[in-house]
Amino acid sequence: MSMNSQGRPTVAATAATSDLPDTFTGNRALQIEEALLFEVGRHDVTGVDLDEPADFKPRLGKLARQQPIDLPGLSEPETMRHYVRLSQKNYSIDSGLYPLGSCTMKHNPRLNEKMARLPGIGDVHPLQPLSTVGGAVELMAELGRWLLEMTGMTSVALSPKAGAHGELCGMMAIKAAIAAKGETRNIVLVPESAHGTNPATAALIGFKVVTVPARPDGTVAPEAVKALLSPDVAAIMLTNPNTCGLFERDVVEIAAAIHAAGAYFYCDGANFNAIVGKAKVGDLGVDAMHINLHKTFSTPHGGGGPGAGPVVLSERLAAFAPLPFVRAGEDGPVLVESEEALLPGETPFGRMTAFHGQMGMFVRALSYMLSHGSDGVQQASEDAVLNANYVRAGLRDLMSQPSGDRTCMHEVLFDDTFLEGTGVSTLDFAKAMIDEGYHPMTMYFPLVVHGAMLIEPTESESKASLDLFIATLRDLVMRAKAGELERFQQAPRYAPRRRLDETRAARSPKLKWEKPEPWVEAAAAE
Amino acid sequence: MRYLPHSDVDRQAMLASIGVGSIDDLFADIPKDLRVHGLDLPKAAGEMSVERTLGRLSARNVSASSVPFFVGAGAYKHHVPATVDHLIQRSEFLTSYTPYQPEITQGTLQVLFEFQTQIAHLTGMEVANASMYDGSTATVEAVLMAHRLTKRKKAVLSGGLHPHYRAVVESLSPMAGDTVLSLPADPGATEDILASIDADTSCVVVQSPSVFGHLIDLAPIAAKAHEVGALLIAVFTEVVSLGLIEPPGAQGADIVVGEGQSIGNALSFGGPYVGLFATRQKFVRQMPGRLCGETVDAEGRRGFVLTLSTREQHIRRDKATSNICTNSGLCALAFTIHMTLLGQTGLARLARVNHANAVKLAESLSALPGVSLLNDSFFNEFTIRLPGNAADIVEKLVDKGVLAGVPVSRLEPGKAELADLLIVASTEVNTDDDRAAFVAALSEVLA
Asked: Biased-composition ranges for Basic and acidic residues (chain A) (predicted)?
């Protein structure tokens, strides 16, 4: 039910299909219905105190705004309540296990937030004189040092703003390197288990995408790659550890074949958190890899972003890193912003973004790295892998694994064959987890596995937390097998919303609030 | 290590449950000769130690709040109400992921729906997406979208477009097979965009206020573009300007992109920021990025979901409209909260205060001997010509405790004819004392 500005319902409440008694407001104790800002705000209200400027002569030419913006405001207490109530309709890693495979939802230390808000970090402009930002440039250099040591690579491009933007950066470097050799290679090989961003990135810059079939366990066979190699192949984009939670055992052989064909090896680094301190991608033959700082080094993703996607480059690609970049200088690191400042041999392919990248994320990631140290980052990877295998061991007798029961990396992949004959769908199973207080795992990805369920517990979870999670899933599996179909099909019952009609949303998209027709408001005021 | 919950006893018990003897057994798939044994990096540091290390780095920078500050050209120092930073740090917002499970992410989804509505109203457009990385990447996405819509491959970039935005478009678009015609940077605002539009043009990209601060009348450019079947992409780097000047949608723009950092977000040395992207309803299926839509749940109650995902790469793979798979969710949240606090009344007033401060500063600076103002009209940013090298003068002003603006040579290096130009921004944070300090310091330096 929504309310008009007098707090009256603007549409009739629909009959609840749940067995809970209805309330007048639609609220359910702490679960409070919150109208849209546009329904409760007023056009003459503002929650910001500013004095009108004293007399001055405007210099807007003839472009002064003719019509008001049509945006309501709220006072400060109203704003606080609106957004606190909305926040309470969100699941978060601070409230519980968030086992989204390949997304890596781990603890976000608040120390990192505090560091990002230091005045000399958060309150510094990207175009201030360089003489006033020496600390910022040194911070970027220090972050780069950590990333290069952990990956065994030659140089780093810090500016990409997200993982997919990092992919784009790496593939643009590869395209530039190929052009610099005077070659025209137009094919990129992408395994069928890859993230959708990989083929989208390659296609965006004009490559033709050719799919590499996977083995039954989701890994890539060197023979499958070799069969597709030709003088037209520019690169392979391989995720390692892959999206089935497995380390690509034949990665070195694949890299060698790629290089022998004159092509480049792009590694999707989304799952780097499994191998930090355990293996260096430089040793595997990788030429470029983005690192999702928000995943591996825990910067908050805030409901969808921001991210940060620095790209580490091999010696073969180092010269092509985009502007701006940090170079070691005689008196400390130097920020190189323009082609005029280049040294011989530096041939950047261009610029990815207006400024220097996600400094706010750089400082959070560095704070995380300093906190863990060389010993801690390795321990974190080990614990992440330990936790995923512990979940695997706790569920392997009840849930089916497409790769068979073998050791996994930081995430464990199940499929839905264990639900066969129960009438419970993968989606139903996920929604039932919500009623148990869990965010569901990643569903229907990777696409190569039917009814995939990808669980990534991360190193943040204690043994007690995992034991309860395992017990909960075991209970759900047994209830599904016992025929408690309605429990699943009706789920979620206890969330702020029951299942939402996604088809309707896509068929007639309603992407912004529209003022109700006058007769609707009049009827509501009756 | 304080972030890791396991004791060694826990670890041993878990290894036993798994049925392996040691943690190394779990890494057996990594060939032995590729295993790393130790990193050449410092050991773990306690909380106090990390604070000291980063505090030292922070102290080596001059913060915008500590001095009279007039640096702009794409990012702006504004006051952010305390409520904004408090609310975005609530756990349920800060530590939530992409809203893939709508039943338990209605908070994020309703915020995105409100954000989309606010952006549509601000820009005067029909639909907006749930944000992009920043203004510069939103601009290149707009160019690529125009190519898809018009099936043409030539973009015309105005000389008033921020040079870094131009560089982003010039880096990516040609790799996608496009031609980019960049008009020369023209601080005198006499560039002739109209003459560059022809039947091959897919889009014209015009920034207003321009990087030099000029307000550009978009209507004649839109008319000429539409005449030949091209689209007008309007760009802004200072969203506060929309509180006072005619929205691009009302001037005929087809796609409007811009930087939203000014509302709710910190400077942060360039990121994270929030890209704004709006267009007409009929183009919605060619839009890049995330979209949140309204629907109903199984009980008929209003709710929100991510929608039109058939445009996106997790469904469409190499046929997706864009490879972008994230948005600036938290920055968009900060934007929305700050905008909610402002409302149209507050935004208009904030814009008037910005404009008034800039007008006063421009008048004072241009009254100095040898200093001239290049702009007829401007919002909160303008360009002055100095009697000498602007970058050198800015450095001398740093010594006098004033951060004076962006020398054009920082954005357009190697162009001697632009070396005496300075782009100056003034916002609501500048006081009478700040302006007086700037004018006095510049006067001394030029004396």
From this structure: 498-518
* Nearest-CA distance B67 → chain A (Å): 11
Sheet arrangement for strand A453-455 = A412-414, A453-455, A442-443
Q: Which residues pair with B279 in a beta bridge?
A: B127, B255
- Give the whole-angstrom CA distance, residue B307 versus residue B292: 6
Distance CA(B392)–CA(A117), nearest Å, equals: 31
Asked whether A356 and A159 are in contact (CB, 8 A), the reply is: yes
Query: Cβ(B265)–Cβ(B291) under 8 Å?
Result: no
Comparing CB atoms, the residue among A122, A385, A500 nearest residue B268 is A122
- Tell me the torsion sign for CA atoms B152, B153, B154, B157: positive
Reference A171, options A132, A208, A219, A124; nearest CA is A208
Length of chain B: 447
How does pLDDT run across B405-440, given as a tens digit for each residue? 999 999 999 999 999 999 999 999 999 999 999 999
How many A/B residue pairs have CB atoms within 8 Å? 726
CB contact under 8 A, A86 and B110: yes
Q: Are the Cβ atoms of B17 and A393 closer than 8 angstroms?
A: yes
Q: Where are the beta strands (DSSP E) in B345-399?
A: 372-373, 381-385
Please report the DSSP string for A492-517 in residue order. -SSSSS--B-HHHHHHS---S--PPP
Q: Tell me the residues of chain B between 147 and 176 that have a Cβ less than 8 Å away from chain A.
A: 162, 164-165, 167-168, 170-172, 175-176
ipTM comes to: 0.98
The pair of three-digit structure tokens given for residue A468, joined into one six-digit string = 């309860």
Task: Measure CA of the first residue to CA of the last residue in chain B; give whole Å.
Answer: 59
Element (H, E) at B366: helix B329-366
How far apart CA A150 and CA A32 sit, in angstroms, is 47
* Per-position pLDDT tens, chain A of length 526: 344 444 444 444 444 455 667 899 989 899 899 999 999 999 999 999 999 998 899 999 999 999 999 999 999 999 999 999 999 999 999 999 999 999 999 999 999 999 999 999 999 999 999 999 999 999 999 999 999 999 999 999 999 999 999 999 999 999 999 999 999 999 999 998 899 999 999 999 999 999 999 888 889 999 999 999 999 999 999 999 999 999 999 999 999 999 999 999 999 999 999 999 999 999 999 999 999 999 999 999 999 999 999 999 999 999 999 999 999 999 999 999 999 999 999 999 999 999 999 999 999 999 999 999 999 999 999 999 999 999 999 999 999 999 889 999 999 999 999 999 999 999 999 999 999 999 999 998 888 899 999 999 999 999 999 999 999 999 999 999 999 999 999 999 999 999 999 999 999 999 999 988 776 666 666 5
DSSP state letters, B28-67 = TTS-GGGB----SSPBP--HHHHHHHHHHHHHTB--GGGS
> Residue A417 CA to chain centroid, in angstroms?
28
Q: Do A278 and B36 touch (CB under 8 A)?
A: yes
What predicted TM-score, i.e. pTM, was given to this entire model? 0.97
The rounded distance, in Å, linking the Cα atoms of A511 and B112 is 10
Q: How far is CA A30 from CA A34, A330, A496, B99, B289, in A?
A: 12, 60, 10, 21, 33
Least CA distance to B107: which residue of chain A? A86
Q: How is the beta sheet containing B255-259 ordered, strand by strand? A: B127-128, B275-279, B255-259, B231-236, B201-207, B154-157, B179-182
Mutate to test the interface with A, among B103, B321, B338 (most CBs of A within 10 A): B103
Q: Name the residue of chain A whose CA is nearest to B8's CA.
A: A383
Search chain A and give the residue with CA nearest B83: A80
Q: Which chain B residues have a beta carbon less than 8 Å from that of A504?
A: 295-296
Q: Say how far apart CA A110 and CA A299 lie, in whole Å.
A: 10
> CA of A278: which chain B residue's CA is closest?
B36
With H, G, I as helix, E, B as strand and everything else as coil, classify residue A389. Answer: helix
